[in-house]
Amino acid sequence: MSVIVDKNLAEMLANGLSEMGLKLSSEQQHKLLAYVGLLEKWNKTYSLTSIREPERMVPLHLLDSLAPLAKLPDHALRMLDVGSGFGTPGIPLAIARPDWQLTLLDSNHKKTTFLRQAILELKLDNISVVTDRVEAYQPETGFQIITSRAFAELSEFVRLTGHLLAEGGEWAALKGVYPYEEIALLPADVHVAGVDSLAVPGLDAERHLVHVVKVV
């Protein structure tokens, strides 16, 4: 993975990680920036994201994806990123937590082609990519954490992925402003275990992580 890293981007990432209290190795930080480089390159042809400037991708795609880490389990686990798109939050989380096994699910072939190329070039052996609709996906075992960055409203997210959650697992949905209305519309067989407010360096916007579990 021979990628020339922009010093300003490297400093921006390092400062952001420090501000969030995340300690990642220089190799991990290099992979995160290499991912931004791949995204910028592919975006010119495939329009994967409306954010085109690397200096905006660092806070909006990298730091935003990594912000939930302190609020998630610190042990090895299986995570599903639903509607992963161009790989957020899945790829940054996989780089930060090589002990996690992540599955990136998206029905868009163009996007999953990019995901497969990215994990190949970044040498991420803890990620698998699935091209399928979430309601049709039937893995052999469930996931301890199911996350999503911009897939659907909470009630729809829970409804479509209920068959994919392992016993005792949780949904960890990334949201912007506090989703009062979405929480109120959740079905009776689940409940909100907590909502964390997330601070993302360089991002002047609200971010929340909503933990949803099945009612026992």
TrEMBL record:
Domain of life of the organism encoding this protein: Bacteria
GO molecular function, one term: rRNA (guanine-N7-)-methyltransferase activity
Principal subcellular localisation of the protein: cytoplasm
Alphabetical list of CDD domains matching this protein: AdoMet_MTases
PANTHER family given in the database record: S-ADENOSYL-L-METHIONINE-DEPENDENT METHYLTRANSFERASES SUPERFAMILY PROTEIN
Described function: Specifically methylates the N7 position of guanine in position 527 of 16S rRNA.
Family label: Belongs to the methyltransferase superfamily. RNA methyltransferase RsmG family.
The protein, known as: Ribosomal RNA small subunit methyltransferase G
Taxonomic source organism: Deefgea piscis
